[in-house]
Amino acid sequence: MKRNLLGMMAFLFSVTMSFGQTVLLSEDFEDGTLGDFTSIDVDMAPAHVNVAEFGGGFVVAEINDNLGLSAIANSWFTPVQAADNWLISPAVEIINGGTILTWDASAVDASYPDGYAVKISTTGNSPADFTDELFRIEAETVTGSYTTRGVNLDDYVGQTIYFAFHHTSDNQLLLRIDNISVAELRAYDLAVSEDPSVYRFADAGGNSPISVTVTNVGSELTTSLDASYTINGNTVTETFDGLNIGALESTVITFTEAFALDNADVNTVAVTVTNPNGQMDEVMDNNNYTAEIIGVMDGPEKQIFVEEATGTWCTWCPRGAVFMDLMEQQFGDNFAGVAVHVGNQGHPDPMEVLGYGGSFAGLVNGFPTLVIDRGENPGIPNLSEMNSFGQDLVDFTTSRPSPVGAEISAEINPSTREMNITVTGSTHSNMTGTNFNVSVLITEDHVMGDAFAYRQINAYANGANGNMGGWELLSNPASGDDIEFNHTLRASLTGFDGAFGLFPADIVAGETYTAEYTYTVPADHDMEEQNVVVVMYDMNGGGIAYNANTLRKVPLLVSGVADLLDENVVRVFPNPVTNDLTNIKLSLEEAQPVSVQILNTVGSTIAAKNYGTLSGTQVLPFYTDNVPAGIYYIHVKVGDKISTEKVSVIK
């Protein structure tokens, strides 16, 4: 849906810095008002009906994303025009050097990111007075959390100033400003936190680099510092020179000496930073950081779990379908893809799995987007960039070992349409108190349906927006008769977040565990196009997916026999059947007993015959004059092996 405003979730881990300061001004809007700030709505434009509550400049409001109240400005108007919104501070006297203005900001939709500028006035608080621009960003970030920004006010020492957030985006959505502060910082103050690129698991038997983020929360430029890390009683100390960390700026430091990881245990690493520029750090309670490095022994194969946010109502969602098909074709061994269909009030999606779809919509900032391993929510690139983007995803997941893995076996009894699934989990680290949930998802490929109900709104129709994998050749909307939907989520056997039970709380590397699941394929779903996706979530880590696996095209059984014939042994032609006759051609290298069974889509046998022992090339007729139009399954058993062919009978 355009500009999804509801149910957003925070994915990024944020660190609240503790540092010494004299606060001159602070506003977090948690009392529901603008406080001493002033909002001026210069554009006076009427807000679009979907964001009517955000009209009239900056207003204090809350969006359902756990970030609380903030000052919010809108740029989505009817008719379309650029915003001209001002959030202006009260007067602030800048007395000393090292005075910093900081704030938190966020756009709310990656497809419609708002931007703004920060301006200074020394003469008054009317918009025309703000002649100095200290900061500008055309598209603020959308992470599910805030991005902290800051500017130095040393040029205004001895003056009284006003500062303003000037919002001028054109036909985007919403901008959020929060946690505004003007403070005098201590001269020397370092803070240490996680390096966001560091993954907590690493292959046992290798060297694990140690890196952290160092933030200068003092007013003086930091050019050097001392740092140390301690693991398992061993301490490594290093001096870092040649740095250039300005006030409120951060950099990542990596120790020259890596940690030799020789176990599958949880290894605690404690990092300390001190002595900025050889000076005493004036605030020591933010100089320490502790993390874990967990060894992974004989790591399992990995697949990246990609959930596509899509819907038949969604104008640009054909791009997502093309991307998912490309991932399957190019990177199938490392790709576990699920297309999650979500409808809206005006255009329900017949493929939505109720419950799952609603929960999933709360993870995304818009449609079409992707949810990667239940964490990041990137947009979908253009056609020319899809392959490289997919390669980046695969490289990302294969570089991050998982403490757990899973193998899948499954089979469908076509007579009962019952699918029996066995999941065998494996553990590769020694950990206590874990909480790994396992999700078992059923997807279907080549889904087709009613021309109207399954129609897809199509921004690429008739080449209007360039090539998009064939969608440019279709109409808008594309008829359900002309399209197929792949990776379509059909069921979740264990709920949206999976279920605990396959893995125990305390795991030991080298163990395996088994669980059984049963699913009945609905009568209007194609038994030959069923897939099983198993995902492993770390519920202690916010539900991030550590690993996934996919069983594509679950095999069908006849009389409990699971071995499949070589694809060259059986051929059915013509298919589709239009003249009341199709042929089953057999190419047999040796004499073997042959039997044929014909099933309809609900698993009922409509014909069966035992042909005795046959050899060589045989053509067996199947007459369709007495069967209604529809889909049928021809099961051919040769010896102890089977082949299943789907045929379409057209009357």
Structural commentary:
By secondary structure, this protein is mostly beta strands. It has 4 domains: about 20-185, Jelly Rolls (Sandwich), CATH 2.60.120; about 190-295, Immunoglobulins (Immunoglobulin-like, Sandwich), CATH 2.60.40.10; about 305-445 and about 485-550, Immunoglobulin-like (Sandwich); about 570-650, Sandwich (Immunoglobulin-like). The chain is built from 3 helices and 38 strands. Strands 1, 3, 4, 7, 10 and 12 form a 6-stranded antiparallel sheet that branches. Helix 1 crosses helix 3. The longest helix has 14 residues, at about 320-330. The chain is flat and about 100 Å long. The model is unreliable at about 1-20 (pLDDT under 50).
Could you tell me the CATH topology label of the largest domain: Immunoglobulin-like
Note poorly predicted spans: 1-19
Q: Note the total helix count.
A: 3
Into which percentage range does the β-strand content fall? 35-45%
The CATH superfamily of the largest domain appears as Immunoglobulins
Helix content: under 10%
Task: Choose one word for the global shape.
Answer: flat
Describe the main β-sheet briefly.
Answer: 6 strands, antiparallel
Total strand segments: 38
Structurally, the number of domains stands at 4
The averaged pLDDT comes out at 91
CATH architecture designation of the largest domain: Sandwich
Tell me the distance between the termini. 40 Å
Radius of gyration: 30 Å
Tell me the name of the CATH class of the largest domain: Mainly Beta
Supply the helix-strand structural class.
mainly beta
